[in-house]
Design a protein that fits this description.
Layout lengths: L1 E3 L4 H30 L1 H4 L4 H40 L2 E3 L14 H15 L1 H6 L2 H15 L6
Antiparallel strand pairs: 1-2
Helix pairs in contact: 1-3
Length: 151
């Protein structure tokens, strides 16, 4: 069991502001376009100026909501840090992720087979390639294929 002791205030505020502002922007643009398209028979004319002002209002509202969310999430992260010191943080149970590239169930069998074929081909290989060296080599090869490698 692990515990979140502290939350970085600035990174939390930036993330929340971008998420909320972005959601408001996307949803607002979608609603503005739907209203302008479906509202044509009702208005009997298409007013580009009203669509432009609706999009501008959507942009401004999303910026204001992002700023408000930035402030509130910074305050909440600050309060969390204070309360985590006083009463303890959120406890979480972490488990290591299963790595789809290296499957350790069959690794011993694979290494022993590879070691037998390599040791039969050259005297130099027999002396330097132990099963542990083979495992290290396989893992290093797999690390090169991915951006990240977690245990």
């Amino acid at each position: 069991m692990m515990e979140i002791k502290k939350i970085d205030i600035l990174s939390t505020a930036k993330l929340c502001a971008c998420l909320v502002g972005g959601i408001y922007l996307v949803v607002g643009i979608f609603i503005s376009l739907v209203v302008s398209i479906l509202g044509i028979p009702v208005m009997q004319s298409f007013d580009v100026l009203s669509l432009g002002s609706a999009l501008l209002a959507t942009l401004l509202v999303s910026m204001v909501m992002g700023a408000v969310c930035f402030i509130f999430s910074a305050i909440f992260a600050w309060l969390y840090n204070i309360l985590a010191k006083l009463i303890g943080g959120i406890k979480i149970d972490l488990q290591p992720a299963k790595n789809p590239i290296v499957k350790f169930e069959n690794l011993d069998k694979f290494v022993s087979q590879k070691h037998e074929t390599l040791s039969s081909t050259s005297h130099e290989v027999r002396n330097s390639n132990t099963p542990q060296n083979e495992i290290d080599k396989i893992i290093k090869d797999k690390i090169g294929e991915r951006d990240t490698f977690s245990n």
